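ping. complex inputs:
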Amino acid sequence: MSDPSTSPMANAPFANERVLKRLRRRRAADRRFKWYGRMAIGFALAALTLLLGSIATQAVSAATYHVVTFDLSFDKNTFGDVQPDSPPPVDRVYGLVRDDLLAEFPETASSPALRHDLLGLVTRLAVLPVAKDLVRKPAEIGTKRRVELPLSDDLDLFLKGAAARHLTVPVGRVKAEEIAGNVTLTSEATFARLIAAASLENMQPPEMPGTGSILMTAGRSTIRLDSLAPSRVTGTLLTGTAQDFRTYPARARLIPAPESERTVSDLQIAWLLALKADGRVLRVPHWSLLTHTDSTQPELAGALAAIIGSLLTLLVTASLAIPVGILASIYLEEFAPRNRITGLIEVNINNLAAVPSIVFGLLGAAVFLGAFGLPRSAPVVGGLVLALLILPVVIIASRAALKAVPQSIRDAALAIGASRMQTVFHHVMPLAAPGMLTGAILGMARALGETAPLLLIGMVAFVAEVPRGPTDEATALPVLIYSWATQAERAWEPMTGAVILILLAFLIAMNGVVVFLRRKFERRW
Amino acid sequence: MLSELGHLPMDFLLLAAAVTLASFGFIAGRLRAEQFSFSGDIHPNSRPNAHGYFVLMWSLVPVVLIGLGYVLFGEGASRAILRSELPEGFSILTPGELTTYLDTVARAARMPDFLSGERVFDTVTERYGEIRGTVNMVTLLAACALSVAGMFVARRCLSPGFRARQHVESGIEWFLFLCAAVAIATTVGIVASLVFESLRFFSEVPVWDFVLGTRWNAQTNAEFGALPLFFGTFMISFFAMMIAAPVGLYAAIYLSEYASSQVRAIIKPVLEVLAGIPTVVYGFFALLVIAPAVRSVALWINQMLIAWGLADGAVLAAQPTSALAAGIVMGIMVIPFVSSLSDDVIRAVPQSLRDGAYAMGATKSEAVRQVIVPAALPGIIAALLLAVSRAIGETMIVVMAAGQRAQISTDPTSDLTTITVQIVALLTGESEFDSPKTLSAFALGLVLFIVTLLFNLVAINVVKRFREKYE
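pong. complex structure:
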């Protein structure tokens, strides 16, 4: 289109000021309209970025976790009776852990409540893998072994700075005096920085009740501040000795949340910092997320059972939906006479593709569980339901692939005397195979992410064992995401994010295969 | 002895029988056919393999039919026999209790050497094991016998002039038809199970109480007024469409009319990523980011209203999970459903219409608004209908982010419940199939199915008409 203003005819009508004004308005409207479009796309992209970004942030924090190392000696007197088939001696191994911790912090010996808090650092079930190892390899009995046990989820979050948010302020060298557990610190360099930081965090002075805590650590000793003045602070010794404050530089940790509103107590933090000063707390890759099964403790839980459950379910789905879908599409595209019944089947398939997935779950609950009495929570039922769910997807994609094969191929085959069946199976299908495979993989990707139908057939049960066959109790990855996401504890959030990334990795891999197949085999006739 | 047979791995045995007998059939047929091809002056009609496949077909079909029958009805038949043999004393149990009892018996019978110590129960369990064993035995024998019979009959038919290939091909065509009919069977299964269970529900709860009642309290088996659920579903879908309709439409218009082909080639697949993300991930996103954000905005609005003296107390409920949060996330999820289909229909509008509009001096936006969109309107409406249907049937986002309280409230920050949330709440957890509580889930499912079906049917027809108009 040529610009009207450049043509010689233009000058006359556009000289009028009113017309020009209207033209400007119309062009402004045009620009605005274009911007609405850009904003819409920007919104969608921003939403996608926010979605993936927030999940990735969570997942990154779950990629590593903290473990505490213990040197345990499995002596023959205690573990002598462990045989390859005996139950894992969880309690006895945990006994060693407990003894080690109690020896490390003798101040807890007097009070059962303190002991309970201390043992909160490492939960009892954390030693289960060690105990199982012991049963598997009894030769280790009588030896000493260094083991890494996951730190309790709340303390792990504290060290990561996620929950019980806190601020670290270096203080440096101080002079310390101790009178019966009360420590007084004085310093030429003033504590002014600490006071400034505390007021920045809106913290009350430590004398006030119900305020957050300020912990001062040097070496493996920690005090909780009771008063804070520019050149002199006093505090109660939580763990360790005042001697450490004379030898090591001190750091202060400001925790704005009051102790009663936190899941970790000041004492637990003090013990943790002492273990850390000993070099016994390590941040390691969180492989147990892939190698452990579900657990009630976030630090022990993993997605292995759900991954295997998902694979078993998909196996059942694939072995049903792909052959049936491809054969059905061949019938509809190549053999079906144009009559009422095939018309009905076509309408049916289009509608089935849009039926909400939860309705398939109802079908599974009523027919497979109710009428046929198949087992609850089993991958075989989940696979059946998902197969019915993705059947329309597979059929529609395969039909498109068959449609894309030109008629001339069929005509040529028929002309040299092939039967219709031979034409289809020897000539048309090989040409349509990449397209069919693409549809099948897309259908499987859909099945992998589907949650609602699996909830209704009971695959939401807590499964602590890796399923060994399609009739065992199992759960699936998306269902695991659902159950972890709806847990109350904070620590589940990053774990859920990490499992979502595992799921998305599977989906991306499947779609990658599709893209590869399309690039490699797509041809235009 | 018989009860030990009850523990047989029937799936594997049947599969093994099918494979073995089928291979025997194939070999038998092929060997026979090879005699024709070498011995005769008559040229055989079909190649030896076709004869082989013909015999294979007839030896396989009986095993497959019997195996299917066993999988579907084996358990039911054994229970029916056991039920008919139970002594008089069991008649005091209600049908529901009897089913639960039989479930326990079946589970116990599956464990080898199970003994509970209770005499009646153990006797029943043992008898059940015997019945299972008999059924397994009869099934296996019948499958093998019929298969061998089929093999012999089929082998008899073979002769040089026998049109084996044609028979095999018509057999395959029947099989293909059966595969296509699975889609029909699924629909029939869905409709039958929903209608059947709903009828049982409506025999206990009047239809009008269900449709128009305003109190929903299904967990305690007391009140089944589903209006709050319909309302919640409507509200959340409405919020979703308030986001998806403008964003999806403008994105589609921009992509089809304004964007260069390079931009389009990047943006379109990226938008479709939104449709490929599992809904449970959206649910987590709603729970993690959007719901807290909605809540803090609502709390801030409350504070502002009070600070300006416009309200005395909190105006917005500001619940931790809210209808608005679920709606926003669901809106993001259905954007690609709107944009993709709208993009297709806008691009299907003939170029001549655009050229005509430009020739009249219209600017691009005027052409879009006054010519192209009206021309594509049926398709756009269909896209919106499909998106609404998707939003109504969506489950995981609302289960995780919308809440459980059945209430009618126009406050977008209060927690509303939906049809799908209640179906999930009613059917997860162990519960017997006969209580009105479980049955009400199927009634809700029926409503959901009908509503989405209507939306889909209308949308599919509109799109079809639209295509016919311009092609």
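The first helix of chain A runs from residue 11 to 14.
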